[in-house]
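Model it.
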Amino acid sequence: MDILRHLGQYLDRPQFPWKKLIVGFQITQYLFEGFLSSRQYRILQQTKPPKTLDGEIKQETFDKSQAYGRAKAQFGFVSGLYSQAQNLGTVYYDVLPKLWDLTGVWLYRYSPKGFTGEIMHTIIFFFTYNLITTLINLPVSYFSTFVLEEKFGFNKSTVKLWVTDMLKGQALGIALGVPLLSAFLAIIQKTGNSFFYYLFLFGIAVQLFAITIYPIAILPLFNKLSPLEEGALKTGVEGLARRLNFPLNNLFVIDGSKRSAHSNAYFYGLPWKKHIVIYDTLIEKSETEEVVAVLSHELGHWSLSHTTKLFGIAQFHLFYIFALFSVFINNRSLYQSFGFYNEFPIIIGFILFSEALAPMDTIVKLLMNILSRKFEFEADEFAVKLGYSTELARSLIKLQIQNLSTMDADWMYASYHFSHPILPERLGALGWSSREKEADPATTDGTKSSVATGREL
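Modeled.
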C-alpha cells in the first residue's frame, strides 16, 4: 500500500505532459504494428507455399489464400488508419470532457429525482460514448462483412441479421453493463484506497457468473444449441471423455453455419460439470475420427491444466491492473492534461489509465501469445499420444483450406499477433507426411467456408 501511495504521489506532477506521452504511445504502437504488417505483407506476396506444405496444398488454394490475406492486410491498413484518426481526434478536440459536460446537462435537465450523482452520470456518458463509436465504426464493419468477406465467398450473413445482431449486442451491453458499471463505481467509492482488493474479488465473481450464465442466457440470443444426435460421433466423443475422466455433462451442436462456414469446437462450464460444443460445419466437412481428433486436442488443454493456468494468469493480470489503477485514480495532473479541471470522474480516470498502460499491455500480449503457442503444441502432442496424429493433421489441413488461413508468416508478425502456431509448424511437430494434395472443398462440393473469427484449433 505504501509503495502504491508513494508512486501515485510521485506521478502526480503539475504540468506533466500526460497528453503528449499518451498520444506518443498511441502513435508509436500504430507505427510499430504497421511495420509488422508490412513485413507480413511481403510474405503474402510469395507465389510458392512453404516447403512443409509442398504436397499438402494445391497451388490454386495457396493463391486464393494469399489473395485473401493481402485483401485483409490492405483493409487492415485502412481501418487501422481510420481508428488512429479517431483516437487522435478524440484527444485533439477534447471529446471526453465535452461529452462528459453534455451528458451532465442531460442528467440535470431530464433525469427523475433520485437519478443523479456520479454513477448515473457515468452510465449515461459511457453508453452515449459507446453508441457514438459504434455508429462511427459501422462503415468499417459493413465493408468487412459485405464487401471483403463477400468478395471471397465467405459471408453468409444478411443485412437484416447483421443489424439484428448489432441491436442485440447493444441491448445486452446495457442490460449487463448498467449493473456491472454501477457496482464497479460503488466499490471504489465506498472502500477507499484499498478498493482494488474488492474490485479484484468482484472481477472473479463476475467471471464465474459469466461462465455460468453465458451458455444459458446469452448464447441462445445469437445461436441455437441442439443435443448431438446418437451415432458414431457421439459414441466416439463420449468414449474420449470417459478415457480422460473429463466431466462431460452435455454434447451440443451449434448452428455456426447460420452466419458462416467457420468450423471449430470448444468446451465450457464449471470444473465439475463441462459441456462440449461442436460446430455443425465441422461435422459436415470432417470425418468422424477427425472431429474426435479435434476434441482430443481441446480436451488436451483441459487435461494439461492449460485452461486453469490461463485463468490463474488472468486473475494475476486483473489484480495488477486494479492495483496500478489505484496509483492513477487521484492523479489530478492526468485529468487536467485532458481537460478535466473541476471534476475527476472515476470512469475517465480508468480510460486514461488504460491508455497510459498501453505499452505494458503490448508486452503482456506478446508474452501471452508465446505461452499460448506453447500450449497449442502441447495439446497437439497430447492428441498424438492418444493416437490421433493422422486425423488431427488432416483436420488442420482441411480447416486451413476451408478458412483460407495464412499459410506462412513473418516471425516478428507471428510472435506479436498469433496465439496459435502456423500450419507448417504444427504439421512439422506432428511428423505429418502426405500421400496426396488435399482438395479444395470449394471445388469439390460447391460450398465455401468462412474466415476464422477468433480462436481456432
